[in-house]
Amino acid sequence: MNNAQSIPTIENAVADILAAIGEDPQRPGLRETPKRVAEMYRELFSGLGHDPAEELQVSFEVEHQDLVLLKAIPFYSMCEHHLIPFFGAASVAYLPKGRVVGVSKIVRALEVLAHRPQLQERLTAQMADALHTSLGALGVGVLLRAEHLCMSMRGVSKPGIQVVTSAWRGTFSQESSIQREILAQLGGIA
Ligand SMILES: [Zn+2]
Q: pLDDT tens for residues 120-131?
């Protein structure tokens, strides 16, 4: 969300929601809430309009072709069906084709993709595609584990369920032995 004009629109919408649920948006505790929510949304949805490839542009050459693995990067995203968070940890593995990026860049690419209305499955696939396309990595694997508040605090109301998604690209998509090895290094699916 890059358009500063949209902040007042969100403020009005939040005030409308408060009124619609039977609250008084003018009472002291709620008076600043639409403004706070609008500011928060600007942060939570800051990945909209950005391409994760922008974060992966600066790479450097390496001679080796050994596996690079980032384990359990914490992330927070917003379920696009309910607009409440799902959150957990992402692990990323890739086999470079002569180029690697700084690990902080991988974390930033994930942030770009997580800071928008999302589905865990799509976040996983988009992260794998970004690494595969931008880095030209020979093989990519992305594994996400997350808890969805839309399952924990409403609906089936079952906290603690971990949803695990994975996406494999390049050579990793065909080689189940590599997938098994990566999953073993990450401590398995469970
Ligand atoms: Zn949901």
A: 999 999 999 999
Tell me, in angstroms, the distance from the centre of ligand 1 to residue 64's CA. 42
What are the backbone angles phi and psi of residue 139, rounded to the nearest 5°? -140, 145
Catalytic residue among 55, 79, 111, 115: 79
Per the annotation, the verdict on 150 as an active-site residue is: yes
CA angle 152, 154, 157 (to 5 degrees): 50
Structural domains of the chain in order of their starting residue, each with its CATH number: 6-44 (1.10.286.10), 53-185 (3.30.1130.10)
Answer yes or no: 126 catalytic.
no
User: What's this model's pTM, rounded to 2 decimal places?
Assistant: 0.92
Q: Is there a catalytic annotation at residue 79?
A: yes
Q: By C-alpha distance, which of 87, 74, 75, 78 is closest to 37?
A: 78
> Cα dist. 185→85, 109, 132, 140, 163 in Å?
28, 23, 21, 15, 19
Which pLDDT tens digit goes with each residue over 151-169? 999 988 889 999 999 999 9
**Residues 6 or more apart in contact with residue 106 via CB below 8 angstroms:** 56, 70, 73, 92, 131
